Amino acid sequence: MTSELTMIDYPAVAAAQIAAITAAVRRPDVLDLPVPSCPGWTVTELLTHAGEVCVWWTHALAEGGLEPEEEVVQAMATPGADLLGWWEARSAALVEVLRTTSPEAVAWCWWRDEERAPVAEVAGWVAHELLTHRWDAENAVGTAAPVPAELGVAGIAEFALRMLPAQEASWAESTGLIRLHATDLDRTWDFRADQDGPRLLAEPGGEPAVLIAATAGELDLLLWNRLTVAEVSITGDRELALMFVNWVDFS
After folding, report:
1. pLDDT per residue of the chain (251 residues) written in tens, 0 to 9
2. Calpha distance 81→159 (Å, rounded)
3. FRET label pair with 75: which of 49, 118, 176, 245, CA 20 to 30 Å apart?
4. With the C-alpha atoms ordered 120, 144, 79, 162, is the resulting torsion angle positive or negative?
5. Which fold has domain 169-246?
């Protein structure tokens, strides 16, 4: 699964997601609309956050493995009066860094113990975060496009390899095998839930306690808290499915 994450042109994906966000937020009278997938936020707040993401990762990718300095990032992460102009400048700077930095170079990251990873790996995380916020923005203005299958698979991998191992919350007593099935690809992922929480299995794990089925893109959105279990197919232990999709802390 890790090798799949390096086979995508992430600078191109990031640029496409940024262009789609820009198109969504430039529609008339949308900046004050609520963002259903980010409760409490308006489109303005979503765009401000997305711009802050661009600033942070622009610095992280350019600093050769050093964590960005908070003061420097914060100074550039304030939009001022021209929110759209600020967003376009900050997002363009990120795309430029993604396109011009060697994939083999080292950048800061939060998910490795040494807090360093190849730029290609970090670029995958950044592109997926922008994809998620692209969906947030389009969903808020009523134009949400599906997540392409290839990027859905990458998002499932990011969730399994980055988010799940980072969780410190306790897991309830419910245990069992959780299987995700991407119906458009006829592909599955198995997770074993025990007292330490769910973890991805390298090989199929046998009969699942619960089967969660949807397209790869929909599974991606489900895992990243954009869709609910009511919007996918659940067969088996529904309580275990709910625990699985709600366990990760995205705050």
Report:
1. 666 666 799 999 999 999 999 999 999 999 999 999 999 999 999 999 999 999 999 999 999 999 998 887 888 888 889 999 999 999 999 999 999 999 999 999 999 999 999 999 999 999 999 999 999 999 999 999 999 999 999 999 999 999 999 998 888 777 899 999 999 999 999 999 988 899 999 999 899 999 999 999 999 999 999 999 999 999 999 999 999 999 998 87
2. 35
3. 118
4. negative
5. Nonspecific Lipid-transfer Protein; Chain A (3.30.1050)
Q: Which of the 8 DSSP states describes residue 171?
A: -
Written as six digits, the tokens of 137 are: 């923005």
Per-domain residue ranges of the chain: 3-145, 169-246
For the chain, the first-to-last Cα distance in angstroms comes to: 26
- Which of 53, 249, 78 minimizes the C-alpha distance to 168? 249
Cα distance between residue 41 and residue 32, in whole Å: 9
Beta sheet of 176-182, edge-to-edge order? 197-200, 187-194, 176-182, 210-214, 233-236
What is the phi/psi pair of residue 90, to 5°?
Answer: -70, -40
